[in-house]
Amino acid sequence: MKTLKTMMAACLLFITVGATAQNDHDQKIMKDAENAKAMLMKKDAGFEKFFKNASGYVIFPNVGKGGFIIGGASGNGVVYEKGIAIGMADLKEISVGFQAGGQAITEVIFFETDAALAEFKEGNFEFAAEASAVIADKGASKNANYSKGVVVFAMPKAGLMADASIGGQKFSFSPFKM
């Protein structure tokens, strides 16, 4: 009986530590997302209209990209609905074509309508090869428009990558537990 209690206590401790580690990881991503939002707003005040008027948005503060002929990208982000964090997201990308190097970027996806955000939250959202992101720089938000209810901005952080490839991004969504 004592062994069973010890094993149960060990399992409970393992689950608690695992949940805390995941929570710490999510908290870091949330802090990084808020910092990325502030950086975008500082770079171009026109982003305020997107953050204020979008039904929702997802901020991927640290997306790593790399490749040589075949490439990929991966990142974690925070999903916001009406400006309130509602869950976490995951980004994966695979591409093929002329590409060499590595790069870190911040990516923000704005959803113009509740329907566009709902499609993302279903967890099967992806961008096809023809989708492109607007490079987030001073004045970039001025001429950017939604296409099919979505607009994407990417801000290079570090690294250098030559890229003329075709690929797509796939996303997943995990809502916060209430």
Automatic annotation (TrEMBL):
Keywords associated with the record: Signal
CDD domains: SYLF
Pfam family name, one: Ysc84
Signal peptide: 1-21
Origin superkingdom: Bacteria
Matches recorded under InterPro entries: Ysc84_actin-binding (IPR007461)
Domain Ysc84 actin-binding: 93-172
Protein name: Lipid-binding SYLF domain-containing protein
Organism this protein belongs to: Bizionia myxarmorum
